[in-house]
Amino acid sequence: MERKEHFSRKRAAILETLKGTACHPTADWVYQQLKPQYPDLSLGTVYRNLKRFCETGQAVSVGVFDGFEHFDGDTSPHAHLVCRQCGAVMDVFGLSLEGLGLERLSHQMGCQVENASLTLKGLCPDCVKQEKSA
Amino acid sequence: MERKEHFSRKRAAILETLKGTACHPTADWVYQQLKPQYPDLSLGTVYRNLKRFCETGQAVSVGVFDGFEHFDGDTSPHAHLVCRQCGAVMDVFGLSLEGLGLERLSHQMGCQVENASLTLKGLCPDCVKQEKSA
DNA sequence: ATGTGTGCAAAGCTTTTGCATCATC
DNA sequence: GATGATGCAAAAGCTTTGCACACAT
């Protein structure tokens, strides 16, 4: 009983939008983005598909910030910076977790680590500038 | 216009409960924990005080997992493991983020990193055992 | 007295879901 | 035709909040 996935133009558009931005959007952001082009798009559909992408590994959830879940179409391992001022979520490359010894830790604790996410909080470059000039 | 903080027995109890457990509880968990001793305790009060503790630095938010925000009375820097099976949130000590070069990164990006949190996802020791025996 | 904390319940908010309808296979 | 996807709107569920009352200073 395998279920075949039917093609859906809207699903493709949602994934495309997610992959095509670096802003780690919320469901509503994607919805607003596509609404002009797909006037009958439903917010529920966006939620359904984003959730689906996370399950199939086509996207990941960055986390819930200020009540909104943020998604990322880039599934390669990298950290994120969340700005406490404007709420922006930015990619941070160049921080490798390789040297932390997660494997050794797993053995010591007897647990099984499948994923590691590093989230930084502070001010994004834009808000740093604004604060300096203020 | 400074506002003085009045003493509240319930607030003290909430903080004590939070500091006294290693389970990184949700607001409701704290509420259920204290309800027997304080029958007229309100869930709203727990929310209000947990939020306050985070603002005053007496506690931190570990993040939102499965829709529930989890808090931690231990504000020292350490990582967390979230079990995808049972939802448990555990402390993980011994993973230092010192060597990552966050300062250098801040300069390079022009941002201001104030906090770094490392969250691991996988299976906790208990669920690893259960899976093996299954 | 004055200002702060709380209980209660309602409101707020994001996210999920049921069902009829439509599209894809 | 059969199965999957969507729109719509209602429901769900966690969290916040307004207000009247109680408590601490």
Characterization of this structure:
The structure is a homodimer. With about 130 residues, the first copy, chain A, is an alpha+beta fold. Chain A folds into 2 domains: about 1-75, Winged helix-like DNA-binding domain superfamily/Winged helix DNA-binding domain (Arc Repressor Mutant, subunit A, Orthogonal Bundle), CATH 1.10.10.10; about 75-134, Ferric-uptake regulator, C-terminal dimerisarion domain (Dna Ligase, domain 1, 2-Layer Sandwich), CATH 3.30.1490. Chain A contains 5 helices and 5 strands. A 3-stranded mixed β-sheet of chain A has the order 4-3-5. In chain A, helix 1 (about 10-20) crosses helix 2 (about 25-35). At the A-B interface, helix 4, strand 5 and helix 5 of A face helix 4, strand 5 and helix 5 of B. Chain A binds a DNA duplex (25 and 25 nucleotides) through helix 1 and helix 3.
Task: State the main characteristics.
5 helices; 24% strand; 2 domains; DNA-binding; alpha+beta; homodimer; 5 strands; Dna Ligase, domain 1; 134 residues
Describe what is shown at a glance.
The structure is a homodimer of 134-residue chains. Chain A is of the alpha+beta class and 134 residues long.
